[in-house]
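lol ok so funny story. i was supposed to be doing the assay writeup but got distracted and ended up predicting the structure for this chain instead. priorities right. anyway since i did it might as well share w the group, maybe its usefull for someone
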Amino acid sequence: MEDNVKVYLGKVIERLKKETKFELRDRNVYWAYPYPKSKLSATAPYYDKNIGLNYAGDFANYCRDVYGLTNREIHYVWEIYYEWLVNEVAEKSPILSSYFSRNF
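and the output, tada:
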């Protein structure tokens, strides 16, 4: 991947991070992806690397529609964004942090 593409994708990732919603309620962290249809959820983010990213999903569609990304670029962005999201949710929720330490 070319350097200028990686720079652009880095900016996309930072924007996605800023647009991700977090809300703390009763010691639970609620979070939502940055695309409009996403609703706040208290469940841990889940992604099975063996299955791969569903390129027809809302996250992929959002990245295609808003940022003009290809499937390869979406996969690159998703891997970095997802790792960040897992860490953010675990950091904000002591209950979920024990789940992540066992499963990742």
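Residues 45 and 86 are 6 Å apart (CA to CA). The longest helix spans residues 71-92.
back to the writeup now i swear
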